[in-house]
Specification:
24% strand, three-stranded antiparallel β-sheet, alpha/beta, 129 residues
């Protein structure tokens, strides 16, 4: 992993779910496709499901260069994308076979808003033991 990056160089990223995420060290970079864990992360970070692209629920709002992922989060006081429902967010997540990659929060520190949503095929993941 490159310093300051959420994208792996050679080492696989640990895949977690809501049962195994707590076993990983604070500050580590992990990946999940677990809807419960993604929603918990979003709630803890005041993040709301959003998109910048045209979908059945509305038009494109911004030209986003994200490799076709299409979904993201809105944060308070940050650039706003078009809000979408969790159902639509997860429909896109499953349709495009994505992983949610994020940095685990450090104790006694502000929650880290760092995340990436990436195609499963572009990421080397290691199952949590």
């Amino acid at each position: 992993m490159s310093t300051g990056s959420l994208w792996p160089d050679t080492d696989p990223i640990r895949r977690v779910d809501h049962r195994t995420e707590g076993e990983q060290p604070a500050g580590s970079i992990v990946a999940t496709d677990d809807p419960q864990l993604i929603r918990e992360w979003a709630e803890q970070h005041n993040a709301e499901p959003a998109t910048g692209e045209a979908t059945q629920s509305g038009p494109a709002t911004i030209n986003v260069q994200d490799g076709g992922v299409g979904i993201r989060f809105n944060f308070p006081a940050a650039g706003r994308f078009r809000p979408i429902s969790w159902d639509e967010w997860f429909q896109n997540f499953r349709q495009y076979d994505l992983f949610f990659v994020y940095e685990r929060d450090q104790p006694d520190a502000s929650p880290s808003p760092r995340y990436r949503i990436v195609p499963r095929v572009s990421l080397r993941v290691q199952a949590s033991e």
